[in-house]
Design a protein that fits this description.
The complex is a heterodimer of chains A (442) and B (477). With 442 residues, chain A is of the alpha/beta class. Chain A contains 15 helices and 15 strands. In chain A, the strands form 4 sheets. A 7-stranded mixed β-sheet of chain A has the order 4-10-9-8-7-5-6, sandwiched between helices. In chain A, 53% of the residues are buried. Helix content of chain B is 46%, strand content 12%. Chain B is built from 19 helices and 15 strands. A 7-stranded mixed β-sheet of chain B has the order 4-10-9-8-7-5-6, with helices on both faces. Chain B has a 4-stranded antiparallel β-sheet with strand order 11-12-15-14. The longest helix of chain B is centred in the last third of the chain and has 32 residues. The chains are: A alpha/beta (442), B alpha/beta (477). Chains A and B meet through helix 1, helix 3, helix 4, helix 6 and helix 11 of A and helix 1, helix 3, helix 4, helix 6 and helix 13 of B.
Chain lengths: 442, 477
Amino acid sequence: MLSRKATLNLHGQDNSYFLGWEEYEKNPYDDHHNPTGIIQMGLAENQLSFDIIESWLATNPHTTGFHRNGNSLFKELALFQDYRGLPAFKSELADLMAEIRENKVVFDPGRLVLTAGSTSANEILMFCLAEPGEAFLLPTPYYPGFDRDLKWRPGVEIVPIHCSSSNEFRITKSALEEAYRHAESRNLSVKGVLVTNPSNPLGTSLSRGELNHLISFAIAKEIHLVSDEIYSGTVFDSPRFISLTQAVIDRNLKDTDLWGRIHIIYSLSKDLGLPGFRVGTIYSNNETLLAAATKMSSFGLVSSQTQHLLSCILADKKFRRSYININKKRIKRRKEILVAGLLSAGIRCLKSNAGLFCWADMRHLLSANTLEAEMELWKKILYQVGLNISPGSSCHCTEPGWFRICFANMPEEAISLSLKRIKAFVDGIRTSHRRLGQSLVL
Amino acid sequence: MKLLSRKATCNSHGQDSSYFLGWQEYEKNPYDVVQNPSGIIQMGLAENQLSFDLLESWLANNPDPAIFKRDGQSIFRELALFQDYHGLPAFKNALVEFMAEIRGNRVSFDPKKLVLTAGATSANETLMFCLAEPGEAFLLPTPYYPGFDRDLKWRTGVEIVPIHCSSTNSFRVTESALEEAYEAAKKRNLKVKGVLVTNPSNPLGTTLSLDELNLLVSFISLKNIHLISDEIYSGTVFSSPEFVSVMEILNKKKYSADVELWNRVHIVYSLSKDLGLPGFRVGAIYSNDEMVVSAATKMSSFGLVSSQTQYLLSAMLSDKKFTRNYISENQKRLKQRQEKLISGFRSAGISCLESNAGLFCWVDMRHLLSSNTFDAEMELWKKIVYDVGLNISPGSSCHCSEPGWFRVCFANMSAETLTLAIQRIKDFAELTVASSSRRSHQSMKNSRRRSLTKWVFRLSFDGREPDERIQLQIISY
């Protein structure tokens, strides 16, 4: 009666990433109403800088009310459904993207396609770059949502590029080659590589070396390179963020075929903390792709009301610059609180310089070096400790014991409480291990 | 290696159709009363620009929702973070009540069965993904909205098989047309998953009759397939007969206990036409089938409605006094406009299909064709776009099986512009009739049989005597 897409579990939402979310919703922590509830540490939201935006809105009230210079824009906006997007908004968005890259890269607003969030942008790229049954290579661990966004309706396969803790999960030349060979052995035609830079869930930005491996690989195999740079505005520490575009330019490859096979994804959901407004974008130098993607954006256009508001906010260059800086400082501070707190509980995190989360090493807390043990630990942390964190397996990590822990989506006292809870939990394990005569290697 | 996918490089987005090409021509030379008074008047875009003042006055009296305030408090943070694909509860509640009100409260809708999407464009595509595999088919009555070729087929791979409707019975859907379409699909080895109708119809501007609705429901019941009713124009019904939603048919005793049947009827709605807000991207799927609701909800991730917009509209639609007044005043204005267009065209010797809804008329220009062919229709269309300066939509772009019909929009311009458009078409019609009557005198001399066929053809729908043939061309009703 219904299609396979509607009835099978191809949406990927039976994954623990979504299950933990459901559990949280049944018993959400609230400092007044439910102080023993589950603290949501599985949602990569940025709640640290709303006050900055709210104060800007308070001093610029006319921007929300459909007026410009005393004239009503309502009718114009109400009717504006042009899939090429509001020119003023695309122009500001291109400027923002350039500024995030310290203006080392310039973006042409005419090469931006607006979409309802990067969820829509990623899916559209798959529809445009691959046939059903073809494949994209993705470094593991990766954002669980990709299983739905890239595979579900476009029918594209994901083949993992295995990264390991032995070299801090960096992408190596051999891992790339191995993934490609593996796809070949499964008779899958590889159309490209998709990376998230900075990485979700690692919180690290790609090194120059990694970018160069990716570029050389894409040239050799004549495939696409998609860089989801949704977290590019959250780089709070060195090393500096190197965007894929910059890396390609630095290798003097701007006038080669590769230039038409580089595509960037961006969104305002993380940097500006506005996931509810559904603002995403595809940037590409490939005219045919742009034409197709623009038409496909009909299925997920950005509300004109929202495009207008954001074009006003982003047009204030002084505000924009100051927002980016203050936001980064706050993210850095939060990350340091989490990292220090976890360390005092004997839990180390991967050294990170970006993102809204840490990649925590809990291998030593596993009862065995297995996925089952990881699930066991995850459930304990969810139900007994009351923290919804994301197990590495939900991100397709090949080594059990790693967890993604978000730090920017809650007030500071919730972070402190979560650290207390985790310390108590770890101490509890230590005590019981001592009782059992086992030593806990930290 | 093929660089891009077939979807990216082929033309199945349907945008090479004249519907979109006319739009492009308009953009190159758009009419403006001051800047470009001889430019092309856009009559190919089904927008509702008649009632913005009502919306604007509501906004002026209720400024808080637009500035993220609720009860004096800022809810910016809450909205900025709200990306729940179940939708803002207050908005879904207000929207289902609005939908019920449009149907005279003869039906009520459960907000839990409503899925919000970025426009009806997204809703229709999502339903295809949920109800059909690539290569399967949906039956659609012709003429139909050109956008369906993109929305239903492009990325989903679903096929459209037309249910041919003809002017002989005012383009009503008949049992034989349904059966014929079903057989045609079978012959092409296409598995039919359902029927999709637009009610009120685009481009006809008519509401489906009770007979048609009953026919459709019994057809899908018999064939065990789905029925999608795109009711995007439901709020634009401005004269009798009253709008009857397919849901009302299901409420009848005969079907009320048939759960399986209920689960196969789905409604699509949007605020783009009734409220004139296409830029805000608000669409919805309504279904009684839990699985459809569940799958469509997850798929809506690819086209969620901005929380900023959901909140603003939840406040507006919750104001019942406002919605009641808006619905009735909007309908009055649409009726007035439609009447203006119809009488204007009549005075140009052009008749329209009798209609009671929509933002357009379905206009009969068959008598202006040089021959009863689609080539002649295209020829006429080009003349009207380039020489007359009106972008209207040729019936072929809507897959009409008879040449000579055009969709002409009336609610997307000022009254003065409509007056000008009517004048232009009048001038053109007079010229065409004059020159073609000269031609037909000539052709009568040269080929009596050919012209006899032409008169016989005209007779078949006009029922007039051959002696009146000259008058026929000037005044055909």
